[in-house]
Amino acid sequence: MSPTHHLSLRTLIAEDLETALRRDPAARSKVEVALLYPGVHALWLHRIAHRLWTQMPALRLLARMLSEIGRGLTGVEIHPGAVLGRRFFIDHGMGVVIGETAVVGDDVLMFHTSTLGGRTMNKGKRHPTVGDRVVIGAGAKILGPITVGNDAQVGANAVVVKDVAPGSVVVGVPGRVRRRARRAEDDPIDPAMFI
Q1: What does each C-alpha distance from 72 to 9, 62, 67, 69, 135 come to in angstroms?
Q2: C-alpha angle with apex 90: 85 to 92, nearest 5 degrees?
Q3: Does pTM top 0.85 for this prediction?
Q4: 3-state secondary structure of 102
Q5: Which residue from 175, 168, 81, 60 is spatially nearest to 127, judged by alpha carbons?
Q6: Which residue, 78, 101, 39, 156, is CA-closest to 169?
Q7: Phi/psi class of residue 11: alpha, beta or left (left: φ > 0; alpha: ψ in -120 to 50)?
Q8: Ordered alpha helix ranges (H), the chain
Q9: Please, which residues bridge with residue 109 across strands?
Q10: How open is the CA angle 93-99-100, to the nearest 5 degrees?
Q11: What residues are paired with 153 via a beta bridge?
Q12: 100-130 confidence digits (pLDDT tens)
C-alpha cells in the first residue's frame, strides 16, 4: 500500500475522481461523480477526518464528528482511524462499514453493504488488513485482525474470518477458497466470486 499522508488532499481527490470514472461503467463525467457518488463523498470526508485523527490528536473528537456526519449523508461508515490506500473505490456505498484498525491497500474495489469489522471489543488491532487490488463483493463481511492478500477476491455475502492467500477467490459462509483468481486486464472481477 502506498502511504497517502504525503499527498495533498487535492491530489487524492483528483485521483479518486479518475478511479470512479475508470471503475464504474455507469459514470459519465467527473462532474457527475463529484456531485452524485456517495461512496466517493464518504471517501473524501474520510480523507479529511483521517488527517485530523492522525496529525492533530487534539482534534480527534472533530474527526469522529466529521465521520458521523459523513455516515448520515452517505450511508457509509468509515472510522477516521482506518487507513485507506490510493485509488480505493466504494461502488454504491450504502451500508459499507470500515472499522478503526482496518487497513485497506491500493486499487481496492468494495461493493455496497460490505464490512471490514471486528470480532472482539478489545483494544488494539481488531479489524482486517486488505492488500492491493482486492475486490470485495456486495454484502461480504471480513471480520477480525486477519489479512486478505493482494489480488484476492471476496464473493458477495461471504463471511471471512481467516487469512486469505494472495490471488484467492473466497466464497460462502464461512468463507472458503474456491480457487485462485484469474484476471483479465480489462475485467478485474472474476465472475466466480458472485456464485
Answers
A1: 22, 15, 9, 5, 25
A2: 175
A3: yes
A4: coil
A5: 81
A6: 156
A7: alpha
A8: 9-23, 30-36, 38-55, 60-74
A9: 89, 135
A10: 130
A11: 135, 169
A12: 999 999 999 999 999 999 998 888 999 999 9
